[in-house]
Amino acid sequence: MDGLENVQDYAKKLEAALPGEIRIASLHGRMKPAQKNRIMEEFAAGETDVLVSTTVIEVGINVPNATVMMVENAERFGLAQLHQLRGRVGRGSAQSYCIFISSNENEEIMKRLKILNDSNDGFFIANEDLKLRGPGDLAGVRQSGQLDFKIGDIYRDSDLLLKAGDLAERIVAGDPQREKEELVPLYRWENEYGNPVDFRSI
How far is residue 78's CA from residue 97's CA, in Å, rounded to a whole number? Predict the structure, then answer.
């Protein structure tokens, strides 16, 4: 709900909808550190039943008795971030649940969220996310999108590409001044705009 609805307003809605004995608190990044710490300590101690928060809880929060997390508008977050968020529950011995709610039933979005439903393995999730979003540019500025890589397929040929990278590093290490004429093609390429790039100047 980060940015879509003010957490305090959302907490008030819950207070109006839930029985009065349920204690609700809100947490967001604009709070002072001491205030955030106090709210988290009260939640960890069981003095708060429901915590309404932005993604400020994504890392560094350890509350073993937190057993249910609901993430609204889950389609707005990356898979790695959602994986981090759900890691905030299930840290104790009690059965825990993480519920992702999406306001968009687009097929691609559902496919992404299904990856999280199928696995708790962070490496697998990151790899599947890479396949869906694309790696972007190896030598450019795009952070997603399919790679127009003419030498090989980054997924199918990953082992071969890693070996080629290791070999290139050894060759370059053997020419520390980058002066060997026969190695010049290794040091030059064209970027996505067709402009020449000289590796020796980077």
Answer: 19
Cα angle for residues 181, 190, 172 (degrees, 5° grid): 40
Give the SS3 label for residue 31. Answer: coil
What six digits make up the tokens of 176? 């520390």
> Distance between CA atoms of 161 and 152, rounded to whole angstroms?
8
What is the maximal distance between C-alpha atoms in the chain?
A: 79
Name the token pair of 128.
């599947």
Q: From CA 136, how far away is CA 140, in angstroms rounded?
A: 8
Label the pairing between strands 196-198 and 68-71: unpaired
Give every CB contact of residue 123 below 8 A, 6+ residues apart in sequence: none
| 143 pLDDT more than 60 | no
> pLDDT digits over 96-142, tens only?
999 999 888 888 888 888 999 898 898 888 888 877 776 655 544 44
Closest CA to 167 of 191, 156, 183: 183
Which pair of tokens denotes residue 44?
């960890």
Secondary structure letter of residue 53 according to DSSP = E
